[in-house]
Amino acid sequence: MTLETPIQAALAASSFLLSLLVTRWLASRGPDRGPVDYPNERSLHSTPVPRSGGLAVLLGLGAPLLLAAAHGDSAQELRWLGFALLLVAGVAYLDDLGDVPRWVRLIVHCAAALVLMAGGLTWSVLEIPGWAQPFSMPVTVLLSLIYVVWLINLYNFMDGMDGFAGGMALFGFSAFAILGWIGDEPIFALTACCVAMAAAGFLASNFPPARIFLGDSGSSSLGLLVAAFSLWGAERGIFPLWVAWVAFSPFILDATWTLLARAVRREAIWKPHRSHHYQRLVLAGWSHRKTVLHSYLVMAACAASAVAAPGLQPHDQWLLIGAWAVIYGLVHLKVRLVERTTAAGLR
Fold first, then answer.
1. What is the pLDDT of residue 32?
2. Nearest to residue 254, comparing CAs of 173, 340, 196, 335?
């Protein structure tokens, strides 16, 4: 059975509809019930907003896949991924309701990473265009652990603007779905498509002005899914790992650059902040909608590049990577220019 069959198309459509309907229901309950996001020093919003949207995304993703598994359409990786997802989503939802200590969350994230590794989802090869070098077992375990934990938290860090994290999931997992279809991996393609469709259903209520947020349960779960799918795709030979990094580079580069820059400035990197590029643009006067729409253009281009990259020759793959390095350098300069222009106008 391929991704084009009516059954799998119906499963993907049900992911969208379930997420859409549940998100609207959760948003209609208002900030008086369930977890609420109150404005703080990191926020770009000024009023309390429900932060239970992650539950809708998880339901939209999980229900169709459980139905598919009941009919025998499953993969070994999905069972381990489901267990890891329960761990991460569970502790994140408790944190949405209250304040789970940072060390408890870190332990659970490490446990989820170990679960994925037990299922064979590891970073075992350093692969760049035209060259590959396997890692030893200790290095594989260490890098896999860091990789999964970082992506879980990275996605959470980047979830700070209406329509942003959901949009990244829509474009990034759509690229994964297309790559899985091209690579003749129907279960991988179907699962990625369900994630993308669940994100699309959530976006209907999260696009600026948002009536509901993902919450930690949603953003942390999406981060785990990015890590798991990138390792799964690389393990199955659908694409090299760096292709997944291209697809999600708008989040990976921004979060990593911001963390390193704050560390160089000797800031407390674990504390809330508004130093990400998208936050700086909004603080400089861009609207949420303008910022997120410009971001969508970059995300769509990254997704298209990721889909095209495995079919290119190594020389062309390096040109693609180099082109994106230049583009991101220009984006960084553009953000600084907007900030300076705004500051000059206030004098």
1. 64
2. 335
pLDDT tier at 1, thresholds 50, 70, 90: very low
- For 325-342, the pLDDT digits (tens) are 999 999 999 999 999 988
* Residue 126: strand, helix, or coil: strand
DSSP string, 2-59: -TTSHHHHHHHHHHHHHHHHHHHHHHHTGGGSS-EE---TT-S-SS-EE--HHHHHHH
Tokens 């700070």 belong to residue:
160
Burial string for 121-156 (b: 16+ CB within 10 Å, else e) reads bbbbeebebeeeeebeeeebbeebbebbbbbbbbbb
β pairing state of 125-128 and 49-50: unpaired
DSSP structure class, residue 210: P
Q: Is the pLDDT of residue 72 over 80?
A: no
Q: Which residues pair with 333 in a beta bridge?
A: none
Q: How far apart are CA 270 and CA 9, in angstroms?
A: 42
SS (H, E, C) 134-191: ECCHHHHHHHHHHHHHHHHHHHHHHCCCCCHHHHHHHHHHHHHHHHHHHCCCHHHHHH
- The answer to whether residues 281 and 335 touch, using CB atoms and an 8 Å cutoff, is yes
Q: How many CB atoms are closer than 10 A to CB 101?
A: 9
Confidence (pLDDT) at 153: 94
Q: Residues 6 or more apart from 240 whose CB is under 8 A from it?
A: 127, 128, 132, 234, 310
Span 211-226, mean pLDDT? 95
CA distance 277 to 301: 18
What is the C-alpha separation between 282 and 46, in angstroms, rounded?
13
Q: Is the pLDDT of residue 4 over 70?
A: no
**φ and ψ at residue 282, rounded to 5 degrees:** -65, -45
Buried b (16+ CB within 10 A) or exposed e, 282-293: bebebebeebbe
Mean pLDDT of the chain: 90
Radius of gyration of the chain (CA): 19
